[in-house]
Amino acid sequence: MLPRKRPAPGFTLLECLVALAILAVALTAGIRAIGATTVSAAQVREHTLASWVAQNRLAELRATEAWPAPGRNEGHAEQAGRRYLWRETIAPTPNPLFRRVDVQVFGVGSETALASATGFVVKPLR
Q: What is the pLDDT of residues 12-28, one digit of tens each?
């Protein structure tokens, strides 16, 4: 009687291919998740910087005790090395000593507001 041959130790080619396919799917999902996180972090940064521009504009109006005329104004501001366009709409309120200021901030060349803020300015009493 001939001795029985034992199969060689290790994995078959088919098992290796299945393992590689599973690994490829898992790595692809991981890379997509990292990419989405990176894009999300960049968007959060843009919105945060734009929000600071809007808040700075309102703070500037309060600090200078400006009494802007009702209407619209535009200007540029730089924050963290990036340039933003701000638009403010000034409207009267029922109290003649207050004016409402709505500030919207846009990326240069963009028509979608990244951030907005609303505040009030008080007429200086002199």
A: 889 999 999 999 999 99
